[in-house]
Amino acid sequence: MRLALFVVLTFVIHSVVIVMGMADFFPLLVSMLLALLIALPLSMLIFKKWRLRATEGLAEWDSGRRAHKQQLRRQLEERLDG
């Protein structure tokens, strides 16, 4: 989604540049850099719900992984002690 936001912003910015007749002085690369600078903080606001959901999913996965790791350690200790 961030990539799509970047592409849309680049298109909008460069379209405005072309309409204003400044395409010779404002190349596509500059439009892309400006779009990147705008897209980064804007995506943090627009996609906040998805970012939080992804963070929660990673936290759940990590806790499950840690629990599984502790269980394997306990089983290994039991086998080595027995």
Describe the structure concisely:
It comes from Corynebacterium anserum. With 82 residues, the chain is mainly α.
SSE order and pairing:
Layout: H1 2-19, H2 28-46, H3 48-81
Structure overview:
There is one protein chain. With 82 residues, this protein is mainly alpha-helical. Helix content is 87%, strand content 0%. It contains three helices and no strands. Helix 1 packs across helix 2. The radius of gyration is 24 Å and the shape is rod-shaped. It starts with a helix and ends with a helix.
Helix content: over 70%
* Low-pLDDT segments, ≥5 res: none
How much of the polypeptide forms β-strand, as a percent range? Answer: under 5%
Number of domains: 2
Order of helices and strands: HHH
Q: Report the strand count.
A: 0
What value does the Rg take, in angstroms? 24 Å
Overall shape: rod-shaped
Amino-to-carboxy terminus distance: 54 Å
Organism: Corynebacterium anserum
Pfam family, one: DUF4229
InterPro entries: DUF4229
Protein name: DUF4229 domain-containing protein
Descriptive terms for the model:
82 residues, mainly alpha, 2 domains, rod-shaped, DUF4229, DUF4229 domain-containing protein
